[in-house]
Specification:
3 helices, alpha+beta, Aminopeptidase
């Protein structure tokens, strides 16, 4: 991810933030957290995730799409699938991750 793509996602151009996000997405399954990955040809091109924390029906939502693939529907498709999964999991309200 370029610095231009890291900054709006993590509010900094830190590679450490990106590594922590990758670790979180690949961690042990937790009922309050879900991550969906989009990939093509073995390369991850997008991630959408929600984290409900202690909330029962509300979660923070975040999305990131690889450089060069913005405005091609990758994020939209990830969000549509994440919303469907969240509803099944009892999440009814989302908020943008801060």
């Amino acid at each position: 991810m370029s610095s231009e793509n890291l900054r709006p996602r993590f509010f900094a151009a830190s590679r450490r933030s990106a590594r922590l996000a990758a670790d979180r997405a690949c961690a042990r399954v937790r009922p309050e957290y879900r991550a969906l990955l989009a990939e093509t040809q073995g390369r991850v091109i997008g991630v959408a995730e929600y984290d409900a924390g202690d909330q029962k029906d509300e979660a923070e939502v975040s999305v990131v799409v690889a450089d060069g693939l913005h405005l091609r529907g990758v994020g939209t498709l990830l969000v549509e699938h994440l919303v469907s999964a969240a509803l099944v999991d009892g999440i009814t309200t989302g908020r943008r991750a801060q």
